[in-house]
Design brief:
Radius of gyration: 29 Å
Number of helices: 30
Domain Acyl-CoA oxidase/dehydrogenase middle: 194-292
Pfam family, one: Acyl-CoA_dh_1
EC number: 1.3.8.7, 1.3.8.8
Protein name: Acyl-coenzyme A dehydrogenase
Cofactor: FAD
Mean pLDDT: 90
Helix content: 55-70%
Length: 758
């Protein structure tokens, strides 16, 4: 005991006396930190510094303030946004025949293009003073999601000008003259924009683009001016085949020093009319049979004046920061909207199909195998919508949370893929026969497109979420890196010493609290609410402690090597991601008034996230290179073992029960799903309602067949007629049953084509 007390006194003296701490702890630690600090390229540094830290910072702190989460305003549409959704959007949806668009025309009809341009669908982010709609991020997201449940081609066509593109870049970085020149014509549809970033050798690694712009003198409008000689080759550019104005990213060089001493100015963005001499557009790709305009653009020795650079000459070399910040908005609005639309459509139509489709004399929704998949569809749809709302809400707070939007992009597109796969499995043969009545096929084809764009999902998960999150969201690491980069060594050491002491206290606190919460099953952890969801706040708080401590240990042990240990770092990124997803679910539950009918969906979503957190930690511990550290970490985070389980079968069955009952809850869960009375969605919904209304009567028919009152071998139509003849049912009841059965057969039918028609 005396030895322990002596050691404790020594430790206190070392850390309490500044000169001793500087020489024995801070100075050697500082040298080690600078040695293991991962090298950052200029583009990595700019990406790291761009954007805002938001709720992700709370989750990384180890002690999230749940009151802060609840204080964020509930995302809601304004009256003018609601009116647009109820009028212009509904009019657009009525104009769309997605089978004709995708399978036959490979393009939107001319009248649809005109309607999109004249009604401001391409101008949702442009301020009213320039003729735009000036809608919020949540309105932008909701409109795109609603359109996507009818036509993915139309949704992508609408979303691109309102995310990464000339409009977004001009609003944030354009000169006054550029804004006045371009924004009105973009708002009224006279100009159609695209943005060219990706090329044959630069995809997710956009910083490696080979496209160049060399400062030189050239002729423009009959005069010799200072400008750029551009050469580029771009692909995968949405709207490029029909664009009238091209946003272009390239690397800018000034070999003759015409602008100053710097010869390599870095990535730059410019706006170029597509009818400018030397600009080539028009070629199309065919992305998995989708009909939205996507193609290439080329230019060789194209001369443009310097004032075509976005932001003017002052924008030279600032393109990468522009792109990183604007890509963040795209990831937070457009792709989450498409993924949420997948959930709304699949939930409504698959719950209907599971009710209407019968096998072995009963609805397939009564089979537990189908219930497992349908429960997953419902639980993930609730989570998708929760994440869409919260992430778009952050952008409406005038934030650009780069880590949060990367989480939303990766996990929502992957959840959308899972939901669509489950929907296809339940629909089975009906899901794979392409035709006017198949409401899933085009969405299924388009899923990999969402997975690929705005950064391939593999790299988003393995490099961006934790790579940026660990540095940006950590309360001390970025500041310590900045201290290490200071030129004055004495000042740098002084700054680092202050940060190091705080960092040590931070790590020790998180380790201690994670261990205590693990031993007590989070009994003493804080929760802002009582009731069924209180335990979830406590468990998430505990896992936040575990993440913060594990991150500190990983960075201490692996140093710069952690950047290359993608499998290790991605698992910590998964922990952060599922902390965020679960937070979104709990926030939605509170915002919507703690509806009791929502509880099974909340439980499913949060328990699934906790399970995934546990799996991610298990993978992290198992594969951590140092076995001693591995053992210590595991015993601190999970001293009694990892007991997180997947959501129970009972919860999945509760979800199925809610989803297969028409009414307010089903409408709320799937409120963005457009049901077209003249298409497959309307046929399926009408059959679902009819079968639900007659379910009791059909059960009586089955009972009479089992008892022998009616012939058990008769099909449904014959049984109805026989029951009427025996006066078991009235003529009116028989007519209603025949009507419901006819709708059922129409709903489960698939499209056929005459010989030679295809």
């Amino acid at each position: 005991m005396s030895v322990f007390i002596l050691l404790l006194v020594v430790v206190i003296v070392i850390f309490a006396v500044k000169d001793i701490r500087l020489n024995l702890v801070s100075r050697p630690t500082f040298k080690m930190f600078k040695r293991v600090l991962p090298p950052l390229s200029q583009t990595e540094r700019e990406a790291m510094e761009a954007g805002d830290v938001w709720w992700d910072g709370e989750l990384f702190s180890g002690n999230p303030d749940w009151q802060v989460l609840h204080s964020y305003p509930k995302p809601e549409l304004s009256e003018k946004e609601r009116a647009f959704l109820d009028n212009e959007v509904e009019t657009l949806l009525a104009m769309l025949d997605d089978y004709q668009i995708v399978q036959k025309d490979k393009d939107l009809p001319a009248e649809v293009w005109d309607y999109l341009k004249t009604q401001g669908f391409f101008a949702m982010i442009i301020p009213e003073k320039f003729g735009g709609r000036q809608f919020s991020a949540i309105a932008n997201s909701t409109i795109v999601a609603k359109i996507a449940t009818k036509s993915l081609t139309a949704a992508v066509t609408v979303m691109v000008p309102n995310s990464l593109g000339p409009g977004e870049l001009l609003l944030h970085y354009g000169t006054k003259e550029q804004q006045e020149r371009w924004l009105p014509s973009l708002a009224n549809g006279k100009d159609v924009p695209c943005f060219a970033l990706t090329g044959p050798e630069a995809g997710s690694d956009a910083g490696s683009i080979p496209d160049s712009g060399v400062v030189c003198k050239g002729e423009f409008e009959g005069k010799e001016v200072l400008g750029l000689r551009l050469n580029w080759s771009k692909r995968y550019i949405t709207l490029a085949p029909v664009a009238t104005v091209l946003g272009l990213a390239f690397k800018m060089y000034d070999p003759d020093g015409l602008l100053g001493k710097h010869k390599e100015l870095g990535i730059t963005c410019a706006l170029i009319p597509t009818d400018h001499p030397g600009v080539e557009t028009g070629e199309r790709h065919l992305p998995l049979n989708m009909a939205f305009m996507n193609g290439t653009t080329y230019g060789k020795d194209v001369f443009i004046p310097l004032d075509w650079i976005i932001g003017g000459q002052q924008g030279a070399g600032r393109g990468w920061r522009m792109l990183v910040e604007c890509l963040s908005a795209g990831r937070g609005i457009s792709l989450p909207a498409l993924s949420s639309a997948t959930g709304h459509l699949c939930s409504r139509m698959t719950s209907a199909y599971a009710t209407v489709r019968q096998q072995f004399g009963v609805s397939i929704g009564q089979f537990e195998g189908v219930q497992e998949a349908l429960g997953r569809i419902g639980g993930l749809t609730y989570s998708l919508e929760a994440c869409r709302l919260m992430t778009a809400g952050a952008i409406d707070l005038k934030l650009s949370p780069s880590v949060v939007t990367a989480i939303a992009k990766y996990h929502m597109t992957e959840m959308g893929r899972t939901v669509m796969n489950d929907a296809m499995d339940i629909h089975s043969g009906k899901g794979i026969q392409v035709g006017p009545n198949n409401y899933l096929a085009h969405g299924y084809m388009g899923i990999p497109v969402s997975i690929t764009v705005e950064g391939a999902n593999i790299l988003t998960r393995n490099l961006m979420i934790f790579g940026q999150g660990a540095t940006r969201c950590h309360p001390f690491v970025l500041k310590e890196m900045e201290a290490a980069a200071m030129e004055d060594d004495d000042l740098a050491l002084k700054e680092f010493d202050s940060l190091l002491l705080q960092h040590i206290i931070f790590a020790a606190t998180n380790a201690g609290m994670a261990f205590v919460h693990g031993l007590t099953c989070s009994y003493f952890a804080k929760s802002p609410v009582c009731g069924a969801t209180a335990t979830y706040y406590k468990q998430l708080g505990r896992m936040s402690r575990g993440l913060a401590f594990s991150t500190d240990v990983a960075m201490l042990v692996l140093g710069g090597e952690l950047k290359r240990k993608e499998m290790i770092s991605a698992r910590l990124g998964d922990v952060l991601s599922h902390l965020y997803l679960a937070s979104c679910v709990l926030k939605r539950f509170e915002d919507e008034g703690r509806q009791q009918a929502d509880l099974p969906f909340v439980k499913y979503a949060v328990e699934l996230s906790l399970f995934e957190i546990g799996q991610a930690f298990d993978g992290f511990f198992k594969n951590f290179s140092n076995p001693v550290v591995n053992f210590i970490l595991k015993r601190i985070v999970f001293p009694l073992g990892n007991h997180y389980q997947r959501p129970s079968d009972e919860i999945a069955q509760e979800i199925c029960e809610h989803m297969t009952q028409p009414g307010v809850f089903r409408n709320r869960l799937t409120h963005l799903c457009h049901v077209d009375e003249n298409a497959g969605t309307g046929v399926m919904e009408n059959a679902f309602m009819a079968m639900h209304d007659t379910s009791a009567a059909f059960k009586r028919l089955k009972k009479w067949q089992r008892e022998g009152t009616l012939n058990r071998n008769h099909d449904i139509e014959t049984a109805i007629n026989s029951a009427r003849e025996k006066q078991l049912i009235t003529d009116e009841q028989a007519e209603k049953l025949h009507g419901a059965n006819n709708l059922r057969k129409q709903a489960i039918a698939v499209d056929n084509y005459k010989a030679g028609e295809l």
